[in-house]
């Protein structure tokens, strides 16, 4: 078939299908987010226009925002579908680098198709081209190499024949999943080649189920049998494997308490008797207490980030660390006893080997006891009080109204600690806390993608004023495209959680809360979030108090669904009230300072570091 590079790429995308966990099929690439410029409008743009009835093309208004929306699709579909974003060369391409970082850190699929400069070089230097004196082959798209699982620059049309199978592999492989960048020089996009029809045959991508090595399986089973206080840690890999139910049955059969990581939140029903709560800095005291007393930790589908391990102070120095992960890279971290396998297959075979073995029932009973204490604490934080509403109270209202088919999101600032630590799961895998890259602005852009993918229930994103101001253009994109979700914007007058870190480690409040920022104005300007959101085509529901919030949120849910556009709830919140899990986090406190408070904080850091454990097998 005589096609241009761009036409062939688009037809290949249309031929890719995916098998969902319920056995049904769907397009692997459900749509393309695009901002066209001179680097992609004629090649890829025309190729997409030719098939406009076969694949949706949504217009973005900021390249970072639309690419983050594409990431949101990958998360909301549990990595079974892949969002695509295309931009022109130069600033448009570079704007998508941050989204690639989000996908890479969180092991999420994303296909980026940035335009590139001319391979022929005849018109160089072209508009938006950055020239490198010693290397004319380098373009701004090389910036994607550091944040891509797979990168290629297509300099001849026939290169697609070798590259596209690798693209599909990375986007669908449980171990290697992450962002793929195909840089597309604008002259090559328009070049033709006789592509074999076989390239465009329908391919159905099914979840890979790697089974564990039998010897490793026996070693892990032996370690579990020799433990008296095992703890099961569930991460995002359990979600992406569709192994939530399997993990719960495993815990029940063997009487093992369960905690969740950030990416694993809402895998376990909140009231399950073995559920000890979330783990780590933004987790729960209950989960952290059990982690500290465990003599064996079986971590499934997690890369054990510092917020999960409390900078490696969460576990006992004598703990036996065992990991079950599809990626060997993650499984062998910290000298763990590694079981490389799909989470569902690994837990199934491990159950078979363990047979009727169970942990001490008194240890299992502690999970419920500790979590009930944590529940009481969260309930006290949610209780109405005088003054500005707290984040915990706002989350409580949203949580109480939510249903099992709803989906809740956040990404940065203080809200992750409130959702991870305080949310009571209403349904399985119904939370997206982007805390691998903690990208301000993902809250709104990612919600657009989630609203596209999540066709039942309400999508609600919670964010602070700082994240809203960081990236809000995709509110208009979602409104224009007809995708409804609810955004609860909590205005606490600045970057309050970083102010908390700054002052909590002995520093003076500086450049975070508006009161500490440089301005010549006696009465500094403030953003009217309600008016701004309305100007972007959103329905808006201000809440003047905690008492108003439930009604505003319920109305927002109704309008977002009925009118197919974002509905924004705006509420003023307290700047310094947070949910604390009692865990330690290593941060870079200066060794020397003019402030005695910082010197004291440095001593506390050294005390914390003395408790860090390096597990080396």
Automatic annotation (TrEMBL):
User: Which GO biological process annotations does it have?
Assistant: inositol catabolic process; isoleucine biosynthetic process; L-valine biosynthetic process
User: Which CDD domains does the record associate with it?
Assistant: TPP_PYR_POX_like
Q: What is its EC number?
A: 3.7.1.22
> Cellular component terms, GO, for this chain's entry?
acetolactate synthase complex
The Thiamine pyrophosphate enzyme central domain is annotated at 218-350
**Which GO molecular-function terms appear in the entry?**
3D-(3,5/4)-trihydroxycyclohexane-1,2-dione hydrolase activity; acetolactate synthase activity; flavin adenine dinucleotide binding; magnesium ion binding; thiamine pyrophosphate binding
* Keywords, ordered alphabetically: Hydrolase, Thiamine pyrophosphate
Q: What SUPFAM superfamilies does the database record attribute to this sequence?
A: DHS-like NAD/FAD-binding domain, Thiamin diphosphate-binding fold (THDP-binding)
Boundaries of every Thiamine pyrophosphate enzyme N-terminal TPP-binding domain copy: 39-121
Q: Where are the transmembrane segments?
A: none
Q: Where is the Thiamine pyrophosphate enzyme TPP-binding domain?
A: 429-570
Q: Which family does it belong to?
A: Belongs to the TPP enzyme family.
Q: What NCBIfam families has UniProt attached to this entry?
A: myo_inos_iolD (TIGR04377)
Name of the protein this chain belongs to: 3D-(3,5/4)-trihydroxycyclohexane-1,2-dione acylhydrolase (Decyclizing)
Give the source species: Lentzea tibetensis
Gene this protein is translated from:
iolD
């Amino acid at each position: 078939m005589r096609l241009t590079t761009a036409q062939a790429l688009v037809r290949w995308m249309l031929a890719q299908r995916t098998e969902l966990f319920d056995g049904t099929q769907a397009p692997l690439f459900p749509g393309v987010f695009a901002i066209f410029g001179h680097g992609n409008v004629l090649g890829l743009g025309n190729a997409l226009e030719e098939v406009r009835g076969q694949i949706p093309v949504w217009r973005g208004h900021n390249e970072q925002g639309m690419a983050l929306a594409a990431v949101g699709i990958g998360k909301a579909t549990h990595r079974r579908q892949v969002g695509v974003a295309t931009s022109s060369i130069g600033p448009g391409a570079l704007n998508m680098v941050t989204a690639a970082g989000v996908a890479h850190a969180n092991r999420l699929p994303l296909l980026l198709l940035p335009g590139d400069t001319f391979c022929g070089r005849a018109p160089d230097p072209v508009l938006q081209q950055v020239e490198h004196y010693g290397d004319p082959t380098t373009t701004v798209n090389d910036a994607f190499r550091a944040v891509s699982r797979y990168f290629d620059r297509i300099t001849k049309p026939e290169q697609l024949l070798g590259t596209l199978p690798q693209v599909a592999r990375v986007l669908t492989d449980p171990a290697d999943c992450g962002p793929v960048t195909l840089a597309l020089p604008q002259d090559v996009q328009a070049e033709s080649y006789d592509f074999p029809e076989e390239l465009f045959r329908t391919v159905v991508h099914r979840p890979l189920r790697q089974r564990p090595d039998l010897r490793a399986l026996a070693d892990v089973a032996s370690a579990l049998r020799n433990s008296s206080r095992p703890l099961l840690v569930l991460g995002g890999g359990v979600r992406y494997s569709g192994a939530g139910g399997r993990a719960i049955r495993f815990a029940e059969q063997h009487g093992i308490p369960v905690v969740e990581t950030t990416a694993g939140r809402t895998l376990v029903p909140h009231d399950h008797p073995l559920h000890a709560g979330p783990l780590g800095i933004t987790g729960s005291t209950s989960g952290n207490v059990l982690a500290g007393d465990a003599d064996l930790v079986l971590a499934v589908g997690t890369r054990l980030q510092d917020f999960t391990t409390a900078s490696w102070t969460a576990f006992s120095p004598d703990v036996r660390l065992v990991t079950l992960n599809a990626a060997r890279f993650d499984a062998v971290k910290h000298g763990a006893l590694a079981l490389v396998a799909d989470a569902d297959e690994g837990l199934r075979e491990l159950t078979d080997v363990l047979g009727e073995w169970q942990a001490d029932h008194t240890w299992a009973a502690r999970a419920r006891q500790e979590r009930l204490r944590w529940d009481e604490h969260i309930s006290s934080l949610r209780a109405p009080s005088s003054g500005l509403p707290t984040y915990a109270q706002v989350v409580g209202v949203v949580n109480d109204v939510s249903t099992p088919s709803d989906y809740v999101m956040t990404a940065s600032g203080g809200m992750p600690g409130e959702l991870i630590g305080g949310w009571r799961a209403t349904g399985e895998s119904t939370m997206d806390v982007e805390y691998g890259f903690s990208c301000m602005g993902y809250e709104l852009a990612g919600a657009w993608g989630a609203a596209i993918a999540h066709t039942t229930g309400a999508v609600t994103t919670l964010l602070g004023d700082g994240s809203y101001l960081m990236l809000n253009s995709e509110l208009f994109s979602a409104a224009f495209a007809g995708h409804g979700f609810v955004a609860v914007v909590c205005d606490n007058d600045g970057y309050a959680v970083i102010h908390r870190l700054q002052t909590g480690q002995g520093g003076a409040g500086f450049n975070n809360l508006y009161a500490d920022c440089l301005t010549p104005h006696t009465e500094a300007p403030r953003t009217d979030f309600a008016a701004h959101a309305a100007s972007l085509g959103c329905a808006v529901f201000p809440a003047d108090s905690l008492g108003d919030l439930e009604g505003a949120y319920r109305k927002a849910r109704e309008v977002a669904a009925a009118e197919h556009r974002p509905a924004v709830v705006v509420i003023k919140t307290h700047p310094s009230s947070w949910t604390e899990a009692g865990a330690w986090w290593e941060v870079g406190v200066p060794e020397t300072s003019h402030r005695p408070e910082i010197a004291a904080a440095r001593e506390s850091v050294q005390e914390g570091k003395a408790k860090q454990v390096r597990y080396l097998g």
